[in-house]
Amino acid sequence: AQKVTQAQTEISVVEKEDVTLDCVYETRDTTYYLFWYKQPPSGELVFLIRRNSFDEQNEISGRYSWNFQKSTSSFNFTITASQVVDSAVYFCALGGGGTSYGKLTFGQGTILTVHP
Amino acid sequence: GAVVSQHPSWVICKSGTSVKIECRSLDFQATTMFWYRQFPKQSLMLMATSNEGSKATYEQGVEKDKFLINHASLTLSTLTVTSAHPEDSSFYICSAPSGSLLSGEQYFGPGTRLTVT
User: How close B82 gets to chain A, by Cα (Å)?
Assistant: First the structure.
């Protein structure tokens, strides 16, 4: 069975601070996909990143960066110089390959509040 | 990019009535779509897989007679909550994968907020 754990339920920071959201996953699949989504109060999921299990290269996109480590089954997300607009719920999700394609297992979510 | 729409965006219904929620892929065909449910302040849970041309497959614990899914075409899946009760009040989100099996791209609809009174 697949499992995603986001240990931090809520994080509160002051604007311009850096913040890292942790994500640990469990899967028996050799091919899988990891995602991060942002969910603002409107409820619509905003796609942030997708990573394939065979690509451990870390990625940076503007103020966002992701650290994928298969050895520790972790896919952590860092926001540099946080802004108030970053306040939202962030979900880490795991998708399988093959017949599990498209089915996502979500973590519990981390509520990020950035104070001015 | 690919877009998935849902209708309605929110609905209020009385207990005992049925509600239909539509999920459409707007610029791509989706032989498979997924329905998720999200209770307030909780995570998304996969309810079922909607398959065009065949029966939906439901996750363990989801009542298939209560949550009827019909994948009418390559761009439309519907979720009907039958005999709704207040405990069915939730945020329902559909998704559709696009592209090849290797891409793993997922496109989510904006969600439908159901309130049963």
Answer: 24
Instruction: Tell me what the mean pLDDT of segment B46-72 comes to.
Output: 94
Q: Is B110 on the interface with A (CB under 8 A)?
A: yes
pLDDT the model gives residue A57: 81
Residue B80 in contact with partner chain A when CB distance is under 8 A: no
Residue A71 pLDDT exceeds 90: yes
B99 pLDDT above the threshold of 90: no
Q: Can you tell me the mean pLDDT for A10-17?
A: 97
Classify residue B107 by burial, with Cβ atoms within 10 Å: 0-12, 13-18, 19+.
buried
- Report residue B3 as tokens: 């877009």
Is A44 close to B111, i.e. CB distance below 8 A?
Answer: yes
**How far is residue A103's CA from residue B46's CA, in Å, rounded to a whole number?**
7
Residue A23 main-chain phi, psi, to 5 deg: -145, 125
